[in-house]
Every structure is written in C-alpha cells, then in structure tokens.
C-alpha cells in the first residue's frame, strides 16, 4: 500500500481536491464509479503528482496506507450513502471516511453513528470554494471526533486556502454534523449575500437606468471599500460579460429563475426549528423560489405597479446610498448566520469557536470578505454581547429552547414569558430553558451587530438603508432582503416590541397566558368572564 489517502468521485470537486492533495506531495489513490473519469484525470493531470488510479473499489482501498483515509466526493443524499457503503465494506476498524459533499448535517450525524458501530471513523467536512477553491485551496469545515481529526486534520490543513496572514482556512469545528452545519449556514449567508447584490443591481438599473457595463464599474469600485469580497468582485465580472452570440450583456440573456440545490432551504428550515430569526437568509431563499414560480409570475405579470416614477437628481448620492444599504444588510446577514451557528451549538451540543469560523471563511470560500477579519476580531476580543445577560439593553434574545420538543413557534406549554423589558429575537419556551438552568450569562448567542466595530460602521449606513428601502417601496422595486435586514435592525433595537399585544391576543383566544413587566409569575385575564386577571403560575 502506497497511497496516503484515496478520493472516490472524480467529478469537478473530487478530481480537483485529489489534484490539490497530489500537488502538496501526497500520493493519492483515485477512483470513480465509471473508470473513464479516473483515466481522464491521469491523462490530463497525471504529471502534477503521485496518483494511484483504480478502476475497482477493492483495488482502490487496497492501495491505501493504514489507517486508511477515504474522501468521498459525490452528490449529497442517497448516492453518498451508497458510495459510503461500497467503500466501508472493504475498510477495517480505525479507518476513516470523509464526506466532503454538501450533506445535510442530520445525515452526517446518522452516518457517523452507523459507521462507529462498525469501528469506522467518519468525518463530515464542509468544503467551500467551488472548482477553483478545490484545486487551489478551499475553506474546509470538518466535523470530527478528536481521534479522527488527529489523523485527517494535517491532510486537510495542507490543502486548505491560506488567509492573508498565512493561517490555514480550516479548523476542527466540533463533532459529527457540526462541519456540515457550519457549511450549510455558510451557504445560507451566500444566498443572502447574492440576493442583496441582486437587489442593489435592480435598484441601480431601475432608478438610474444604468447598463450592466456601468454597474460592473460600480461593483469594481465597491470592491475597494469595506464591501471587498469575492462575490462583489465576481459580480463586476458577470455584469461586464457580453454575450458573443447576441452582443447583449450576458446577464440580459440569462433566464431570471434562480436555482437552488437545498443548502439555503435547509438553513432556513433549521433556523425555524431553533427559533433563530435569520430573516435575510430566509428572504433570499424565498426570492429564489419566487423567481422560479413561473405560473404565478405569468399570472401576476399584468398586475399594476401603481408606483411613482423614478427621478433621481443626484446619481452619485443614490449609488452611495445603495452601497451603504448593501453593507449594513450584509452585516445583518452574517450576524444572523453566526447567531444561528451559536444557537445550533447549544442545541446540538457542539463546542464551536465562532471566531475560528470567521477566520476560516477569510479565504478559499464563496463568502470570503474583508470584513470577516473584523468579525473574527469581534469574537476574539469578546466584544460580542451574550444574549441572555441580565442588563437587557442590547441582547440578541434568549437561547432557543433546549429540548427540541417545543420549538419557538409551537406553544408546547403556555408558560412563555417575556425576558424582562426586552423580549429579544428568540421566543423560547421559557419553562424549558429555566428548568435546565441554562438561561443565563453562560450562553453566548451573539449579536455581532452590537460589537463596537459593527455597531459604528452599520450605524453610519442605517439612514441610507432607510432611504433605499423607502424609495424601493415607493417606486415598485422588490427588495425583500434589504427590507428584512432593516426590519431586523429595528426589531432588535427597540426597547418594546408589539409582541406584547400578540401575547394579549393569544391569552384572549387561547388562555395562553402572559408575563408582566412589573411582577414575577404567569398571568391570565378572564377576558370573556369577569375581565379580572389571575396569577396562574
Ligand atoms: C461553495 C458553494 C457550493 C455551491 C452550493 C450552492 O461554498 O463552494 O456554496 O457549495 O455553490 O452547491 O448551490 P445552490 O446555489 O445551487 O444551492
């Protein structure tokens, strides 16, 4: 046996990761269910390093040094299960399988358990960076036991991207499904980022009648500001591209229906379960769904806008407003995403270092952005305010409920109470949280928005975000992600939310009870009877 590791699945990602390992001096066994793809890698890139091609799974596994490490790079879902099973039958206790696909984290948790029963170690590694990243250095988010990480950590570190300060863009996230979870939220943020960019584009187009080529220049200029990021950079390139066949901007001949493979949807589904308001990501996911709702769009096509006509006198000021709106909303999206990871860590018992996550997203991945340095610094400096601290002036809200049974939206008991004067962004089952004694300062569901750097830079942009959302509404441009970001900002900011009225209504029709700001306990008003209040708990 000569190979340091094996890669099965010679698609775009698998073949490029295999080449990345080979370029770093590893001897890499490669395999694909159809051997011609393995042969292509050897024919086209065989000189890049030491490859051991195998047509047959038994030969592939036999070529690996022990304990064996096999990276599976195939389509997420059932195919991953099938390939894992095909590999596992040839492995021995102590061997390790890494799934580098975009697996659903619950599948990863299940697979890890099932393989552990057979003595095999399983690592669910989120890999971001697309084809280019896979070859030249992706951001890698492995969820693994300490035992498995000890063996695979150095391999993954060797091929990962390097941030500007030289730090590798991979870290041991936590156990089992944690790596795929963090990758899932990465993709959710990716959705929000792209939707915000698309809304900025729609506004400049609608308000200023700018051409894609003109906007390409604007995005290129924005990439020199605190918005600097991979997605802003490639937006400029996509907008500048002219279709060879028609001579039109390519963006004008692309069908306006956004696809999705599932990770954004999963992010939103899980956030709903956790009760974490990731509104920017949710709107971005639904905006894709709306774009692809063809019959509804056809039926709605002649609805009247009844909007005002644009008449922007100061074009530069408008463009600067859009840039600021984009920055503020982008910070909201990342803040919500990190909030979700923090909540998931509590719920699923993962010990996740949020600063380390920010650091490994600084290069290699799709959402890499200059301001991730500041996010990492905010966590490292402990500037992120714990959610459930008792001062109650700027917290992100309570932790989500811990037992997984009563979700935030499900009135599993009637004992919810507002958390002091500031009822927060989560609406937990307070009884459950209290019962576990964990609703205190020791939790740290963060509010990145309130960390000093972000507070200062976002506040500078808020007036612009307000103007942009208002203008968009008046002029009939849909900006769901900008709107949701502003609503979130105002929601976490205000001292009293209208949720008090909702509690009153719930108590009226369903005796769901409420807490009072001035007394301990749980109360119910006998609305339909004598109108008196009783203390019920
Ligand atoms: C990455 C990307 C990558 C891919 C996703 C998203 O980090 O490299 O997120 O994983 O682009 O599959 O795809 P959809 O937009 O199709 O959901």
From TrEMBL:
UniProt cross-references to PROSITE patterns, sorted A to Z: 6PGD
Gene Ontology biological process terms from the UniProt entry: D-gluconate metabolic process; pentose-phosphate shunt
What reaction is this protein's catalytic activity? 6-phospho-D-gluconate + NADP(+) = D-ribulose 5-phosphate + CO2 + NADPH
Name all 6-phosphogluconate dehydrogenase C-terminal domain ranges: 179-528
Q: Keyword Metal-binding, does the record have it? A: no
Please verify whether the record's keywords include Cell membrane: no
- UniProt keyword annotations, A-Z: Gluconate utilization, NADP, Oxidoreductase, Pentose shunt
Regions of compositional bias (Basic and acidic residues) in chain numbering: 414-424
EC number(s) per entry: 1.1.1.44
The molecular function GO annotations come to: NADP binding; phosphogluconate dehydrogenase (decarboxylating) activity
Which SUPFAM superfamilies does the UniProt record give?
A: 6-phosphogluconate dehydrogenase C-terminal domain-like (SSF48179), NAD(P)-binding Rossmann-fold domains (SSF51735)
- Subunit structure and binding partners: Homodimer.
Recorded protein name is: 6-phosphogluconate dehydrogenase, decarboxylating
Record the organism: Bowdeniella nasicola
